[in-house]
Specification:
heterodimer; A: alpha/beta; four-stranded antiparallel sheet; 36% helix; 27% strand; B: two-stranded antiparallel sheet; two-stranded antiparallel sheet; 11 helices; 4% strand
């Protein structure tokens, strides 16, 4: 049984059908990348999985249970965390308060303290700035905060939407290093990225989304060698 | 001088009532992003509940106020569920605004039906006579002092709740970004309900204080203080809790002093002129944050 299984998913965006019958799966322990151009439906797919927008058809199974109609606020306690596009940290809360928001559904104080320790060791910069309002952080720091906040819920699967968007190359490398560490810790990752080269080099498998449909899929190492991918997404 | 002090203290007391009402406006606006124009009428309903408890059923003021707080809380949650929630995400914020005006008229007419248009003479919930200073030259009524103390207490409790409790932090999160908040596991609808509950409960307290100071209760009692409190909330910076407090106090003092020194008839005109001037200079109000449009 796959950890996350998407079956024939359809999503409407207003009058437009944004996702047209896509199916894919993520196995436990994998990093799976969803790549594609702007407007291909990558973000819409993630939003539908975590219940931010409703599916018009098809099924979403997480660890065997149907979560197609589960409201967004129930998802995180099931073990799925979503780092949204554009970070969306709470600007008027401090770094520490944001991180605590990430553990909103957790009741176990010791677990929360342990997770905070883990996040701070992974992102020392967040520890330094824990009492700063998160609206005052740089883009890269906000991305770290958004990832740390998601990790505070002890997720078994992490959905990440464009973590490298708008960041300087140094931060991009740092973010991808952290994704690799998250994987090494046994957390499954579904990664949406426009930076196809980076995404393919870090992931086990990938799906290429074009106008709401899956155009290509396969092992990331093979896709990196694929002519069509090289021309359309790697700019070679 | 003593005369000035009397009017200043009365202004602070009136302003405290505006502030408590404005807190309800500003919290609902901050979290649900809507102007609840029926908020003033919740005050009126609360006052009638206290009146009924005290006069008709012969209750002590404290349980009567508690009854009104519970009643208004339920009223607030119910209106939100029935009238506002179905329109949330309907695209136009105008739809909710118009519905709120409709709810306002509904509550006024419902009270007309139940309590008639005859003014009811409210009995003060504060039994204390007050204090007399400077050999009786300066008299401060008990209700005036109690009003100021209650409003400061309300502010302190709210600040603690928002900044120090998990639910309060969830409110800030919801007010900033509903989608991101729900990804944290926060039930956005329940948080909005809670906000309406708190705002409406505060309205009941405001009603008790308002009608104790101005004991003439009619179905339209809440309308004008409601508008004034809205002005106070905008003046202070809508969405800001300390802003609502400062806006309310300022408005009360300005109103009281202009009644004394300028003109009784013109005092409301002066209050609204000040709002216009402040908004021209600082469109976000005194403590308002820069408005961020999120797509």
């Amino acid at each position: 049984m796959a950890m996350l299984e998407i079956e024939e998913l359809n999503v409407n965006y207003g009058m437009i059908r944004a996702i047209r019958g896509i199916s894919f799966h993520v196995e436990k322990g994998e990093v799976v990348a969803l790549i594609g151009a702007n407007g291909a439906g990558k973000t819409t797919t993630l939003h539908t999985i975590t219940g931010l927008i409703p599916a018009a058809g098809g099924r979403i199974l997480f660890e065997g249970s149907d979560i197609t109609k589960t409201p967004a606020h129930r998802i995180v306690s099931m073990g799925m965390a979503h780092v949204p596009e554009g970070r969306r940290v709470f600007a008027n809360l401090t770094v520490l308060q944001n991180l605590k928001m990430g553990a909103f559904t957790r009741k176990d104080k010791a677990e929360i303290a342990g997770n905070l320790e883990m996040v701070f060791s992974r992102f020392p910069r967040l520890k330094e700035r824990q009492n700063q309002l998160s609206g005052t952080l740089s883009g890269g720091e906000q991305q770290m905060l958004a990832m740390g906040r998601a990790l505070m819920s002890s997720p078994r699967i992490l959905l990440m939407d464009e973590p490298s968007m708008g960041l300087s190359p140094i931060f991009v490398n740092e973010i991808f290093d952290i994704i690799a560490k998250v994987k090494a810790d046994g957390t499954t990752v579904l990664l949406v990225e426009q930076n196809a080269k980076k995404a393919l080099s870090i992931s086990d498998r990938a799906y290429v989304l074009e106008t709401g449909m899956i155009a290509l899929e396969g092992r990331s190492s093979e896709l990196l060698e694929n002519d069509r991918i090289r021309k359309a997404y790697l700019g070679e | 001088m003593l005369n000035f002090l009397t009017y200043l203290i009365n202004g602070l007391s009136l302003g405290s009532i505006y502030a408590i009402i404005a807190l309800g406006y500003t919290m609902v606006y901050g979290i649900a992003k809507m102007l609840n124009f029926a908020h003033g009428d919740v005050i009126m309903i609360g006052s009638y509940l206290i009146y009924t408890g005290m006069i008709t059923w012969g209750m002590h003021p404290v349980p009567a106020i508690l009854l009104a707080v519970v009643g208004c809380t339920i009223l607030g949650i119910t209106t939100e569920k029935i009238a506002y929630k179905p329109l949330r995400g309907a695209g136009s914020s105008l739809a909710v605004l118009i519905t709120a005006i409709g709810v306002s008229y509904f509550l006024q007419n419902l009270s007309l039906l139940i309590f008639t248009a005859n003014p009811k003479s409210f009995t003060s919930v504060v039994g204390w006579e007050g204090v007399s200073l400077f050999g009786g030259e300066l008299k401060i009524q008990g209700v005036t002092i109690v009003t100021i103390i209650v409003s400061l207490l309300v502010l302190a409790v709210l600040q603690f709740f928002i900044n120090r409790t998990k639910q309060g932090q969830a409110m800030i999160a919801v007010s900033e970004d509903k989608g991101a908040a729900s990804l944290m596991g926060i039930n956005v609808n329940r948080t909005i309900s809670l906000t309406f509950a708190i705002g409406s409960g505060l309205a009941a307290i405001a009603g008790a204080l308002l009608c104790s100071a101005y004991p003439n209760l009619t179905p339209y009692t809440g309308a004008m203080p409601g508008i004034k409190a809205f002005v106070a909330a905008v003046l202070g910076g809508i969405g800001s809790i300390p802003g609502a407090m400062i806006g309310g106090l300022l408005l009360g003092v300005i109103e009281s002093l202009s009644k004394r020194y300028i003109s009784t008839q013109l005092s409301d005109a002066i209050v609204f002129s000040i709002l216009i001037i402040v908004l021209l200079i600082r469109p976000t109000g005194l403590l308002g944050k820069k408005i961020q449009e999120k797509v």
